[in-house]
Amino acid sequence: MADINPSPTPERAIYGFVLYLSSIFGFTLYVVWAFVPEKWLHSIGLTYWPQKYWALAIPTYISVCFVFVLVFFVAFNLITAPSLDSVKTVTGDLTRPVGPDNALQPKAVPALSDIPISEVNRRLYLKR
């Protein structure tokens, strides 16, 4: 079994440096494409570029997709979660329901039992 060492290996350092250089190069290329006028690009021989529309459209689409994914995951979790008074939310094989002798009293410590989620929600969130 190989020793686990948190320090970077030379291969990882090389990969990181190449990734750093390529990201700087890509960002520089993007800035040139987005902000330098077409006439200047044609005068130095760079004639094949996508339309300037895509310089704003691609980051906008990526941002909108990111927000959509966040909203989608929250909505998906809310749809697939069982309702708050469902038996699936709290109960299990070893559940001890609150009995009549274990009634919840204001200044007493009740016996060990599982409080139903509907009772917890009623006490925490319903206005009296």
TrEMBL record:
<keyword id="KW-0337">GPI-anchor biosynthesis</keyword>
<keyword id="KW-0808">Transferase</keyword>
<dbReference type="GO" id="GO:0016020">
    <property type="term" value="C:membrane"/>
</dbReference>
<feature type="transmembrane region" description="Helical">
    <location>
        <begin position="12"/>
        <end position="33"/>
    </location>
</feature>
<feature type="domain" description="PIG-P">
    <location>
        <begin position="12"/>
        <end position="125"/>
    </location>
</feature>
<dbReference type="GO" id="GO:0005783">
    <property type="term" value="C:endoplasmic reticulum"/>
</dbReference>
<dbReference type="InterPro" id="IPR016542">
    <property type="entry name" value="PIG-P_GPI19"/>
</dbReference>
<keyword id="KW-0472">Membrane</keyword>
<keyword id="KW-0812">Transmembrane</keyword>
<dbReference type="InterPro" id="IPR013717">
    <property type="entry name" value="PIG-P"/>
</dbReference>
<dbReference type="GO" id="GO:0006506">
    <property type="term" value="P:GPI anchor biosynthetic process"/>
</dbReference>
<dbReference type="Pfam" id="PF08510">
    <property type="entry name" value="PIG-P"/>
</dbReference>
<comment type="pathway">
    <text>Glycolipid biosynthesis; glycosylphosphatidylinositol-anchor biosynthesis.</text>
</comment>
<comment type="function">
    <text>Part of the complex catalyzing the transfer of N-acetylglucosamine from UDP-N-acetylglucosamine to phosphatidylinositol, the first step of GPI biosynthesis.</text>
</comment>
<dbReference type="GO" id="GO:0017176">
    <property type="term" value="F:phosphatidylinositol N-acetylglucosaminyltransferase activity"/>
</dbReference>
<protein>
    <recommendedName>
        <fullName>Phosphatidylinositol N-acetylglucosaminyltransferase subunit P</fullName>
    </recommendedName>
</protein>
<keyword id="KW-1133">Transmembrane helix</keyword>
<comment type="similarity">
    <text>Belongs to the PIGP family.</text>
</comment>
<feature type="transmembrane region" description="Helical">
    <location>
        <begin position="53"/>
        <end position="79"/>
    </location>
</feature>
<dbReference type="InterPro" id="IPR052263">
    <property type="entry name" value="GPI_Anchor_Biosynth"/>
</dbReference>
